[in-house]
């Protein structure tokens, strides 16, 4: 089964002023995604083949939660149902094997970095609207990713990999063991994971999962990649998002550059929306949250540097998958050091943002 045969499973669509079969619409590759294969279909749709890490059931969650997000003023893609009313098309065999889905296309462009610090405030407000839209929703997820933010579990797996006799001859083992040793010490000093309310979250709020207008000042026009939605704490949601927004260096650069200005503006935007309902415990957890995510990722990349299991790596810059993952681990560990030293400044940013929100 090829693209055309998949698209024949869908009803005729309105696109560009006319109603046509989706199989007759022009299709082009959309680059930039690390996981799912993605194509632009006509003017108003996106076709995706999901990575195998996602079960078809993830589409049931998206279908259930998207109406609440749209009602809350959060622009997100909607699933297009097949002729039979299904949320996706499953192909079992052949070159096109996998789970396929068709989505409406949200206007805007995806990019890997914020262009200005001021955009962080805009992004923070949109994320606040996202969480507020789902605040009263009760949803049991059909698809889950257990242990995504099991901090102690990630450290344990990195330790196991560095101590695994089967990996003792790996050329990167000594470098990885140095990373893992410091990680274990830093996680212990970071302290216990806070007990926070479970919220419905996006789960992967990196900059590229926000769509932006081309006009200046840029506005957030949409939130995409909803496969990672989950029930978890706001600390991991914001910690992960801020790691992307505030680090103006690439993930695998040896010296991360964390912008305190971006952090302050992001907190101003976010807390300005959620202040009426966010708890004091959630606010108190925010300054340390990004350090926790950096430690988790450093552990995951360190284990992957030896087991060489991570699905994405840059073969043009690194000789092996392991070498790229070691660079990622070292970069995230450096970021954790920076964030540990900056904790008082991060606390100040959160406190100021909350005071400003309460004056609104």
Topology of helices and strands:
Blueprint: H1 3-7, E1 13-15, E2 18-20, E3 27-29, E4 37-41, E5 45-49, H2 58-71, E6 89-91, E7 98-104, E8 109-110, H3 118-133, H4 151-163, H5 173-190, E9 199-201, E10 210-212, E11 220-223, E12 230-232, H6 234-246, H7 260-274, H8 280-307, H9 321-341, H10 343-359
Antiparallel strand pairs: 1-2, 3-4, 4-5, 5-7, 6-7, 8-10, 9-12, 10-11
CATH topology of the largest domain: Aminoglycoside 3'-phosphotransferase, Chain: A, domain 2
Number of structural units classed as domains: 2
- The helix-and-strand class reads alpha+beta
> How many helical stretches?
10
Strand content: 5-15%
Q: What is the CATH H-level superfamily of the largest domain?
A: Aminoglycoside phosphotransferase (APH), C-terminal lobe
What would you note in describing this structure?
- The chain has 360 residues and is of the alpha+beta class.
- It has 2 domains: 103 residues, Phosphorylase Kinase, domain 1, CATH 3.30.200; 242 residues, Alpha-Beta Complex (Aminoglycoside 3'-phosphotransferase, Chain: A, domain 2).
- The chain contains 10 helices and 12 strands.
- It has a 5-stranded antiparallel sheet, with no helix packed on it.
- Strand 3 and strand 4 form a beta hairpin.
- It is globular.
- The N and C termini lie far apart (56 Å).
- The model has no long low-confidence stretch (mean pLDDT 93).
